[in-house]
């Protein structure tokens, strides 16, 4: 998961390389560090370095990391021959390597040879039962074959052992959301907020799920988490600002006719609405009219 | 709905939806169809425009609710309403109309009983650069009397056609020139409000 600043930096670098301004190696390192999926670019720029013997030897021992990175990108782009070549080079250099064994497993996956890939992974796991990457490959394979319940089972088992893997929790949450299993998704986000309380994305996702679940209590809690998102992002998160307005409107709907003692204070809603209007006026003025009508329809 | 309806989608709306799916080829995507019943022929539903919505966490309500309010507001002033929903599944092999699509479809149906659900046909999309077909790369689903979404078959009944016959050729061109890079959806807008989900510059 990448922060906004990191993403901007990456995109700037990507533009630079795209426009011939150099920095390909820097870009590839940043992609690796941030663990983002930009396979077409990685393939293009990675190959341009690998195919140039001078650039390649200038990398020193990082050359092999690049071969691995390009192999994976190639598989993602279905350029299996390129992947095979890269893996061959790595195999020659590191003949007994488990890491190369993993790449071979991934190649089988990319070809759709699920049973063989499963066999390869199982045997690698025998020698190394705590290899996180292989466990996650099996989740990915289940997902790729449409076996979503299998993926969920595997992912849950994985998280029992590796409970600090935040990306895995997020993946699980997203799978649950896609199946409309919102309570289970909420649980995942609760785990994430507990372990990373200052990451605003978790608060926002949790709020979104609670709002979707609906019910007065969930809506009130959602509002709190939209508020904490706004807090953690210095008021700059458009989704959270909208979230506040949606919550206020929904809460009013749900508690209509109930004599609620704790009347919702309208201040938070007006603050959020004002912040949105100010932002749209500055940066998206052609949509300001739409925003105003939308907010008006949400004001109860 | 016993009537046989013809759903006529404009090239503009059609291409936008496919390009959106191509841009986010690792996730499910969805979009909204805007249009109206043909004022001269009530058996024809014109799908005049489309708005690409999301490419992440499609089953969450808050972004969807905001998008629907804004989209309806914008097109309402042009006399157009929401007439349907488009969905593209995450996996190539998945040709099923999923529950999220059906739920959103049900919601739209309440306001527009001739609502259309369009599901991207991945196998047809794969064949686009080679073939010269004129048929749309989407399957049409309509709600039948038993409240289920039924696939509109080739054996009569309602059908989906593209208004401009050369649409797939234009689409092929755009695919080769990677035009999908420029497409903006509502997700992008919520992340950066400077990005315009109306995509005014896309086909210039």
TrEMBL record, chain A:
Pfam families in the cross-refs: TPR_EMC2
Assigned keywords, A-Z: Endoplasmic reticulum, Membrane, Repeat, TPR repeat
Domain EMC2 TPR-like span(s) in chain numbering: 100-209
Topology in membrane: Peripheral membrane protein
Locations listed in the record: Endoplasmic reticulum membrane
InterPro entries assigned to the protein according to its UniProt record, in alphabetical order: EMC2-like (IPR039856), TPR-like_helical_dom_sf (IPR011990), TPR_EMC2 (IPR055217)
Subunit text: Component of the ER membrane protein complex (EMC).
Protein's name in the database: ER membrane protein complex subunit 2
Sequence similarity: Belongs to the EMC2 family.
Described function: Part of the endoplasmic reticulum membrane protein complex (EMC) that enables the energy-independent insertion into endoplasmic reticulum membranes of newly synthesized membrane proteins.
Lineage: Eukaryota, Viridiplantae, Streptophyta, Embryophyta, Tracheophyta
GO cellular component, one term: EMC complex
SUPFAM superfamilies, A to Z: TPR-like
UniProtKB/TrEMBL annotation, chain B:
PROSITE patterns: MPN
Listed GO CC annotations: EMC complex
Residue ranges of domain MPN in the record: 7-142
InterPro entries, per the entry: EMC8/9, MPN
Membrane spanning residue stretches: none
Similarity annotation: Belongs to the EMC8/EMC9 family.
Protein name: Embryo defective 2731
Lineage of producing organism: Eukaryota, Viridiplantae, Streptophyta, Embryophyta, Tracheophyta
